[in-house]
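$ ./design --mode recover --in tokens.txt
reading tokens...
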């Protein structure tokens, strides 16, 4: 499933930006929804992985009427490859491993042409 294309323009207050300065999107003045397209709930982006044993992350959730931040637990689902879902519990979309960002995919395909050993999943059977 293709990634949702919703964008939220941010005007992050300086004290918050100081704490979350590692979140590049906040510094850039926008965040992108991480859910799959056509999800039924609010848009969402992870702002910070909370490494305090709580097993969650700080997420921004937004819709046309406003924005909220919340500490949400991680989705417990994991695919056969044994990678955890990178979204929050009870997200209203497919799991993160099913969400495809077309821009990221295009970049990976270009990098695979230069560095095929690093991206074997993008190299054709005939080596192209």
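writing sequence...
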């Amino acid at each position: 499933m293709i990634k949702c294309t919703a964008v939220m323009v941010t005007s992050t207050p300086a004290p918050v930006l100081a704490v979350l300065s590692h979140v590049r999107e906040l510094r850039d003045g926008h965040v992108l929804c991480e859910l799959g397209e056509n999800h039924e709930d609010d848009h969402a982006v992870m702002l910070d992985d909370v490494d305090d044993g709580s097993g969650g992350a700080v997420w921004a959730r937004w819709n046309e009427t406003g924005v909220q931040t919340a500490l949400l637990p991680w989705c417990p689902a994991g695919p056969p490859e044994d990678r955890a879902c990178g979204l929050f519990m009870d997200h209203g979309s497919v799991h993160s491993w099913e969400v495809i960002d077309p821009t990221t995919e295009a970049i990976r395909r270009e990098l695979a042409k230069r560095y095929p050993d690093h991206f074997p999943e993008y190299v054709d059977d005939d080596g192209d």
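exit 0
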